[in-house]
Specification:
The chain has about 170 residues and is mainly α. It has six helices and no strands. It starts with 16 loop residues before the first helix and ends in a 21-residue tail after the last helix. Its main location: nucleus. Belongs to the HD-ZIP homeobox family. Class I subfamily.
């Protein structure tokens, strides 16, 4: 088989669709204002309302329908962008709170470790078992003193503010 390669000039091709249809005119500012006003009352368009608006504006009903469709799409995109930015801000705040809380946990663990070390240095396993020795501090008494210092009752571990755990020594 032999194909004859013809040039583009030999065959009449239809013009592009853009040239076959009437050139759409842009809406004027007044027309857009009227559409915006109507859209603000109801963003959906019933057929009779679409026809009435088209007559009032002097444009095809299809152009009114497309304008409404595009307007709804623009509003949806703007809403999604706003929601995305709000979620992004919330995420940043949560991450900052998380980092702050992790630091607080580390600080409290270190503080607890120090307190446990102090408690362990005052209490030996044999001293808690001895009965009748008034000079030895029991673990229970030490814990009570510590708790009193935390709630602001002073005690051996702190002042009235409850934070001076190592300011005074236990006697």
């Amino acid at each position: 088989m032999h194909f004859n390669h013809a040039t583009m000039d030999q065959f009449p091709y239809p013009q592009s669709r853009k040239h076959l249809t009437k050139h759409k005119k842009r809406l004027t500012q007044d027309q857009v204002r009227i559409l915006e006003t109507n859209f603000s009352f109801n963003n959906r368009l019933e057929p009779d309302r679409k026809s009435r608006l088209a007559l009032e504006l002097g444009v095809p009903a299809r152009q009114v329908a497309i304008w409404y469709q595009n307007k709804r799409a623009r509003e949806k995109n703007q809403s999604l962008e706003f929601d995305y930015k709000a979620l992004q801000l919330r995420l940043e705040n949560v991450l900052a709170d998380n980092a702050r809380l992790k630091g607080e946990v580390q600080r409290l663990k270190a503080e607890l470790s120090k307190i446990q070390g102090v408690l362990n240095s005052f209490i030996s396993p044999s001293s808690c078992d001895e009965v009748g020795n008034a000079n030895l501090i029991s673990k229970h008494d030490l814990e009570r003193e510590f708790y009193a210092s935390l709630i602001g009752g002073g005690g051996a571990f702190g002042g009235q503010d409850g934070y001076d755990f190592f300011g005074r020594s236990v006697s």
